[in-house]
Model the fold of this input.
Amino acid sequence: MSATLLLEQLINGLQLGTMLFLMASGLTLVFGVMGLINLAHGAFYMVGAYLTAAVTAASGSFLLGLAAGLSGAAAVGAVVELVVIRRLYHRPHLDQVLATFALILIFSEGTRWLFGSSPLWLNTPEWLAGHVPLPGGARYPLYRLVIIGVGIAVAVGLWWLITRTRLGMRVRAGESDREMIGALGIDISRLYTAVFALGAGLAGLAGALVGALQSVQVGMGEPVLILAFVVIVIGGIGSIKGALLGAVLVGVVDTLGRVFLPLAFRAVLPPAEATDVGAALASMLIYILMAVILAFKPRGLFAAHD
Amino acid sequence: MTDPTPALSARRPSRRLGRQGLVQLLLLALLLALPVAADLTGHPYYVTLASRLTLIAMAAVGLNLALGYGGMISFGHAAYFGLGGYVAGIGAFHAFDMTPFLGGIPGSDNLLVLWPIAMLACGLLALAIGAVSLRTSGVYFIMITLAFAQMVYYFANSWPTYGGQDGLPIYLRNQLPGLDTQEPLTFFLICFVGLVLAMALTSRLMGSRFGAALTMARLNDTRLATAGISPTPIRLVAFVISAMITGLAGALYADLNGFVSPSMLSWHLSGELMVIVILGGVGRLYGPLVGAALFIGMETLLGGLTEYWQLFLGLTLLGVVLFARQGVMGWLAGREPHA
Amino acid sequence: MKQIARLGAGLLLAAGIATAHAEEDVRIGMITTLSGGGSHLGVDVRDAFLLAIEQSGREDIEVLVQDDARKPDLARSLANEFLQRDRVDIMTGIIWSNLAMAVVPSVVRQGTFYLSPNAGPSDLAGRMCHQNYFNVAYQNDNLHGAMGAWMREQGYQNPIILAPNYPAGTDALAGFKHLFEGEVAGELYTQLGQTDYAAEIAQIRASDADSLFFFLPGGMGISFMKQWAGSGVELPVFGAAFSFDEVLIKAVGEAAVGARNTSLWAHDLDNATNHAFVESFREAYGRTPTLYAAQGFDTANLILAALESAHPDDQDAFREALREADFDSVRGEFRFGPNHHPIQDVYVREVVMGEDGEPTNRLLGIAVEEIQDIYYPDCKM
Done:
């Protein structure tokens, strides 16, 4: 096991983490401000990827596609908020779960209706296809570094938005006292639509960026959604800082576990069994991590409020 | 929890046969009469369909105890459903292969052995998951139960001994002494008895002091605590019983299909069970049955009409959540008498 | 109660005999995956199957199609519906091995014919084989094994091999190694449904392999190929057709070009039946058929050919007619082994850039002639 491989895997984990952060930040923001649990967050990820693929194919420009994916997902998010989500704020979590579960079905099958059953084409653009040399001789794909860069930019942007702007002030006010903010005469429903659209846009951005690396297909948002849930539970629901830390933790632990657990078991078991046991354990690793963290900190690492 | 439907009405339903009682009696009679009629007229497919409905309803009855009566929104009940199924599958596998389980325990295809084991296994799993999960509440609880179920799902997928993702076939339905479980109607009646027992247990439980404490824990756990009762053990016991009922339904379901696979553990199934409970009416004794009938009905009817049936399923669900808050039982039987 | 049950069973039996003999028509039940992830496989099987039935011009064949949404329990329930309510004579359509394992054994045990247009799990070829079960596609190991044999022939000595950690994945690698017969540089298992392969690609880069063989069906293959192309690792890539069908390589784009894959069929395979099939499929549906379409088309034509000599009610005669496999297959020669699984040539294709600027498969040649699965000795029928 060389230091280079370890370094490369750490960057891989970081990249997975930034992608999860884009998903989790929206999820956690929507929960923190509106108290809403949104299972359909993965649908916006899918919408972002599909729109990016469609627009990139039509226009030939990845940047244009990316813009369409981001803004399209935000727009779809705003519409969904106005038509459905808005009716759910005062409902029990149970109703929210059911309604957003229904939205998953509607989005998945609706997308299939519009775009067909086949996966769509979307690749990294030429100008991002290069590599960056790593110390030790390996080369790392530029595109993945760009994703990490975008993730950092979004994290900084969110921090600025929340601590330095009027919108952020209202968000923080809404998090600590939902009734108060209404009493202050702030148009709360517009604030909610904006926050929801922001979350949807970030999910769409994640889908658009990752769509170039993965298969753009119906249902692509679901595995990511569940990972994002783990992230925000670990980080503390409602906390952006927690989402960031949780995302990086989950990304790194998952990546390193997948690589090194089978290797570690090879030291004590025959190779075939080591692979079986190692892979089985690696697939459960982040859930075990979550259970351990919750056993000590039932509200996650940085709980905002329940 | 701001759940408006109290659960106390389940107490002594026999004394006063109001509108709700009538509807409930009619539902049970229908569930029993239709498969018998289908069998007599030579349509065994509908008997099998009714068995499937009955078992899904039974799994939902289990979930309803935790979710409806206990206010614990478990998004991971597929874990117990699947584990129950795997106990039936693994027992049959070792009985068929004549190999021992875990080095020493012989396999068995006797349902009187398999059912208690399935329930015990699910109870233990729920005890472990519940002990960690009940330290949390609200959205944390929803997500952590989901995550634990995913963990079991991935484990079943990647563990090769019992088929991994391919699942495990049960070549011959497991046996119950004195009965021919292969006959569709006999098997349906076994499922039916299981469902009725599960509902009776729920009803008795909710009518007892334990049920009152559980309801109080849901509505206001501070008040319960001032009465000197700690809410967490109450919830944990309800959670474990709930998992055991769902697990037994899973064991029967594996036998009905002659097959168990990780899809019985998937989060979609957890979601569907929740959907069924909510469709029927949360915290209502007969809600799961009505919800299951609707769900299976839609799946069967819409699935034959269009390949985009899940879209319409989604739209229907959305409509129910937004506009029919008491569930279908609420619409059929009116508000709960004590509300 | 038992008596009532028995009475019911008696009535059912009577009714079953009555309907089966009352009609000369043939009813075929197709359960396939038409919704959700990976549904393009089921859609192609269905479309090609219906095309063949339509081309036959026979009015007396009714095909009922149902969507299993890739759920084993739903598939099982639909099978019951077909058997007990619609009383179909023949069933077909299932795409995935795990669904086939859930449905096929009970269908054939109840005396209905099942013809597999895609899945070929090893159990159904070996110890659980059945006289009413015919596989018109392949045994799951075929394509992987053929690639192993072909790579050895081409002089590759140290491939690294990769598959998801589930039965079809471990079987694929075992099948590959069985015919490759040499040492491999390493075996990597991914999680089922995994979307990010950076960790595995880094391991491949760090290994001293001279080639890569992988089995990642559907969306997993798309993700992997895209990330592989972006990684700059320059090993030659090999796989089975499941990761390189016409739909998938169009989604991967240029990154798929150069990869070689084994398939039991190619759209540019040179025989008259195939020319007619590809042309009519393109005309009817406006797309190039995948190998799943070819399998669906062959399945329908096998049924049509067998119906020429017997009705499925005459089980022995119909079974014998199926065994003969006297039809023009789009893949050239086609015959069944003793376990009703095909003995067939496996071809090698290379992904090239087509004239329309989209990648497509080009036939390179035959990888292994007359390949047969290794499970037939276990089959006692």
Residues 2-140+270-344 of chain C form a domain with the Rossmann fold fold (CATH 3.40.50.2300). The interface with chain A takes residues 34-37, 39-40, 43, 165, 187, 189-191, 193, 195-196, 198-200, 202-203, 205-206, 218-223, 226-227, 229-232, 247-248, 250-255 of chain C (CB under 8 Å).
